[in-house]
Amino acid sequence: MKEIYTRFIAETLGVQKWQVENCAELIADGCTVPFISRYRKERTGGLDDIAVAEIKHWADVFADMEKRKATILSTIEEAGKLTAELRRKIEDSVRSDEIEDLYLPFRPKRKTRATEAIAKGLEPLADAIWTGKTARPEQEARKYLGEKVPTVEEALAGARDIIAERLSETASVREGLRSIFRTRRVVSKVTRAAKDNPEAAKYKSYFQFTMPLEKIPSHNLLAMLRAENEGFLKVSIDADPERCGKKMYYEYAQLGGYPPEGAAREVREAVEDAYKRLLEPSITGEILREAKRKADIESVRVFGENLRQLLLAAPVGQKRVMAIDPGYRTGCKVVCLDEQGNLLHFETIYPHPPQARKIQSVMTVSRLAEEYGTEVIAIGNGTAGRDTEEFIRRVGLPEEIRIFSVSEDGASIYSASDIGREEFPDQDVTVRGAVSIGRRLMDPLAELVKIDPKSLGVGQYQHDVDQNLLREKLDDTVESCVNSVGVNLNTASPYLLQYVSGIGPSLAANIISYRREHGRFESREELRKVPRLGDKAFQQCAGFLRIRDGRNPLDNSAVHPEAYHIVDRMAADLGVPTDTLVGNESLCAGIPAEKYVEKEFGLPTVHDILKELAKPGLDPREAAREFRFADDIHDIGDLKVGMELPGIVTNITNFGAFVDIGLHENGLIHVSQMGRKGPVDPSKVLKLHQQVQVTVVSVDPDRNRIGLRLINR
User: Fold this and answer.
1) How far apart are the C-alpha atoms of 684 and 610, rounded to whole Å?
2) Where are the beta strands (DSSP E) in 559-662?
3) Other CB atoms within 10 A of residue 621 CB
4) Which of 113, 182, 282, 354 sits at a 20 to 30 Å CA gap from 434?
5) What's the CATH number of domain 476-614, 3.40.50.1820, 3.40.50.300, 3.20.20.70, 1.10.150.310?
6) What is the average pLDDT value for the chain, to the nearest integer?
7) CATH topology classification for 113-304
8) Do 393 and 362 contact (CB within 8 A), yes or no?
9) What is the pLDDT of residue 488?
10) How far apart are CA 330 and CA 350, in angstroms?
């Protein structure tokens, strides 16, 4: 990667240039983000996976930029207009808008007023006015009169059109206007189409809205731009035309000095036309796209953080689960799963109206719990979820059976997906959905990787942001979560395995096939026998795969096989077998890390090894906790301002957090109701699925809106 790019990345991320260079080198060598951040800390200076992913993102951006530069330089050179200075400016740029500005005068054009004027032979007149070589443009224009240009005014108008287009294609002019537009306010106004359209009502707060562009929250801007796309708003920037005109004339003058008054008058008129007709629409679009890009990045950041918290939600582990997908008219689908999540039994109960077969439903639930040794119950939190939870709590099951409310977001997507059909080809979508609810309680990460993250309901305006940027962030987040937890090589599904560093869908399928044919893996080294899993793939994946009760206890840890010899040395120096060292905190605490530093394995890696040896294979996720909604709240009409209620955070946005308090409608804790002074980042205050206490501050039954305040205890 060129130095101009590594320097830019280092300054943008606030890291050292050598860290970027080494990281980029590892990426180019085929190393993955999780592997680099976990096992190459000496090379990167301890950069975490987020920083490494950012460097990878910029490396991809600049790789594309290099291709674009090559195309542009080739085009200009073929036209015979590439100077050494222009080449230098393009090659040294790290900004795509600057590169496109430099290319703009040479880009093949469609028919414009300026190209028509040039075709009429008026470019020399425009040059004379532009350079100030004529003090009498009217007299100069007479030289160009003829059949195509019958009057002086037409000649001058054509020259002004050429000058206007030239101004609009001048890099310094465009950048000067951008600097002005960035400091102005974004304005939205209601359109005629919105006035009688009920769909526009949700954008009412933006019908007459203005805010400084640099201060507008991402969710506000994205909402406005969505409304504009739907035809309900007109969004603009309130740049001052007079100030912009002066800036344009100043930038023009810097190119060759101020012309005599006669030529200056023509240039000023061309400046006014260029601004209104060409630059104002173009720069407005650019700056709004630039602002949207920033809003996209912020929204994607929020989405990624929410997804991380969702994927790393507390698991109950390998328990025998009864999972229920609630419903009224169609009944509640009940499935029983074993400790590995295999489907043992399913049937439907009807505890709610209109059937209301309560006694029969009670008997069925009691029988199934006893017959299948149920340890925990997972109840979907969608329609009828609250009523079903209350029903189950009244069944009279043994106290040791814990009951959990589980988010249904994405369960229906899984049910109808190819993955769902592949796993349960003989079951209908309702059974698949219930199984998914149960499995996501056992291990949220293992189950949720089967569902498109955009369907999990944890973002804001996810359909409005740059989809490539969103996909990149979500893929990075899923990969980071899977590898931070580690994967059981002998039980993992192919959908989980494919996110392990260095594996992907094809190798995941090969691993599953090998496991079916040869039985469980007894060691990490056995992975080398999997078809198409070569040395590089082994290096990237081995440390993230766990083998319980295998031949080598280190295979159930995050210690990478390439460092096993270090552990063997430690054990030998202590005079104990390696097996004795694994999991022995007291022994590990007395080992001097400095003694085991090698050329390829520095102090950070040795410290990681000792930490892992003390608690091998430790799951970083918390344990699942039970939760219970307030018993006397069933619909929005039961709410009163001032009530204190328990709730679960279901989504976090820049403007606040949504909380499930046991109703069909979630309440909103606005950022102003989080009990903090100054600017508040909700993601720093709350976590997804966090159990909280809230106070009701407003109730609007007509719009089904509930305002909440966070109780900080």
Assistant:
1) 31
2) 644-653, 656-660
3) 18
4) 354
5) 1.10.150.310
6) 94
7) Tex N-terminal region-like (1.10.3500)
8) no
9) 95
10) 8
Distances (CA, A) of 157 to 125, 170, 278: 11, 20, 16
* pTM to 2 decimal places: 0.85
The dihedral over CA atoms of 552, 556, 562, 566, expressed in degrees to the nearest 10, equals -70
Task: Please tell me the distance from the alpha carbon of residue 280 to that of residue 644, in angstroms, as a whole number.
Answer: 53
Residue 678 pLDDT greater than 80, yes or no: no
Distance of alpha carbon 89 from alpha carbon 72, whole angstroms = 12
What's residue 247's pLDDT?
96
Map out the domains of the chain as residue ranges: 3-106, 113-304, 321-442, 476-614, 636-710
For domain 636-710, the question of CATH label 3.40.190.10 is answered with no
Give Cα 442 distance to the centre of its chain.
Answer: 26
pLDDT in tens, 221-267: 999 999 999 999 999 999 999 999 999 999 999 988 889 999 999 99
Confidence of residue 632 (pLDDT cuts 50, 70, 90): confident
Does residue 713 carry a pLDDT above 80? Answer: no
Cα–Cα dist 377/362, whole Å: 14
Pairwise CA distance, residues 548 & 487, whole Å: 11
Q: What separation, in Å, do the N-terminal and C-terminal C-alpha atoms of the chain show? A: 51
Taking a C-beta distance cutoff of 8 angstroms, is the pair 365, 334 a contact? yes
| Buried b or exposed e, range 111-136, using 16+ CB within 10 angstroms | eebbeebbebebbebbebbbebebee
d(CA 707, CA 698): 5
Comparing 49 with 409, which gets the higher pLDDT? 49
By the 8 A CB rule, do 392 and 324 touch? yes
